[in-house]
Amino acid sequence: MTTTLITNLTEVFTADAAHTVIKDAAILLEDEKIAWIGSAAQAPAADTVIDAGYRAALPGWVDSHSHLVFAGDRSAEFVARMAGQDYAAGGIAVTTAATRATSDYDLTRLLMGRAAEALAGGTTYLETKTGYGLDVEEEARHARIASTVVDKVTFLGAHLVPAGMDAQEYTDLVCGEMLERVRPYVQFADVFCERGAFNEAQSRQVLAAAHQAGLGLRVHGNQLGPGPGTQLAVEFGAASVDHVNYLDDADVTALAGSWESWDPATRTGAAGTVATCLPACDLSTRQPLAPGRELIDAGVQIALASNCNPGTSYTSSMAFCVATAVLQMRLTIEEAITAATYGGALALGVQDLVGSLEVGKRADIQLLNAPAVAHLAYRPGMNLSGPVFRAGALVVGKL
Ligand SMILES: N=CN[C@@H](CCC(=O)O)C(=O)O
Ligand SMILES: [Zn+2]
Questions:
Q1: Which listed ligand is nearest to 72 at the C-alpha?
Q2: Boundaries of each Amidohydrolase-related domain copy (predicted)?
């Protein structure tokens, strides 16, 4: 066993249940795990001592929603949107055409580049989805490639009905042969339950088949208008419902109800459906920001994620999401960081492994080139990303 002490930290934001902040702190690592956190003055001896240079530390981001397996460019669509055109699900087809025409080698290289970009920004745990393949061979190929690069893979065959195909026929394919082929590579399945994508009956069919196949569930819900997505997610016990821009009182009540057996003070009990807010996407599509403040106040556990994809949110910057959540969604800095770390872990079911800095957890730690984590929102748009540790190893930057 090797011990490493990271010391001279101005503050450590742990993202534990009490949002504990330790000033003038140090963190002891034993191999890949956190063994001790406390005041630097009381730090135990270690084999190696690393001087953090009076930076603040926080957990690595857990980005629980992205679509990184893609090729091609949709900047023209973005330009048109900024000129007043509405976002429509149909844009997905443009990426599908470009991605289908890209080799395994190039697609892997593109995905690895995006994952490296996220890591450099402090993301130490990453989920990504399929959903630009939209036929059996391509969805299986994208799932296989994703499984070699990211931590969790979500099957999103139910992203868009491909041109020329009947919606019911395609839904049957997603729930049958496609699901079977992607199954070895994925842990979750998702459905884009929205006008222009999959309706309630089709979404139900997808969720039921994925559940039957033993997958965790997620739903893209209530992104472009009111709809059944959120309530379906709760009904099926989905790990998360993502977007949640257009919620009514019944949706919020259903989400809150799913957390009734969860004790937020001890973070124990039965987890409900995490509401994942995607503020970078909301800005890029000019949708109303998800009601993160109201959801937290109602007792719902929320996550913040990048939704990095070429259509609606071409950024993997979790720091940008955190700053937006504080400045525009009225979250406190502690709530926003916790949603982007522990909340993401909860949405992926890995909260015992990552998402907070606590003894026994994996040492996924990002340092900020700033003395306090508040700088993430206080200095929006500035690149404050410093050295990053993943599983106890320094993987970004030098110290
Ligand atoms: N809403 C559905 N899917 C993606 C966008 C996909 C695209 O436009 O390429 C999203 O999460 O925003
Ligand atoms: Zn998405």
A1: 1
A2: 57-370
Any ligand 1 atom below 6 A from CB of 92: yes
The answer to whether 218 and 244 have CB atoms below 8 angstroms apart is no
Asked whether 276 lines ligand 1 (CB < 6 A), one says no
Q: State in Å: Cα 368 to ligand 2 middle.
A: 28
Counting from 1 in the atom list of ligand 1, the atom nearest the Cα of 192 is 2
Give me the residue spans of the domains in the chain: 3-59+356-396, 61-348
Record the pTM: 0.98
24 pLDDT more than 90: yes
* Closest residue by CA, ligand 1 atom 2: 192
ipTM over 0.85: yes
| Helices of type H across 247-378 | 249-258, 279-285, 292-297, 318-327, 333-340, 342-348, 375-378
Q: What DSSP state is assigned to residue 323?
A: H
Residue among 36, 11, 16 nearest 342 (CA): 16
Cα distance between residue 130 and residue 38, in whole Å: 41
Q: Which listed ligand is nearest to 64 at the C-alpha?
A: 2
In terms of CATH, what superfamily is 3-59+356-396? Urease, subunit C, domain 1 (2.30.40.10)
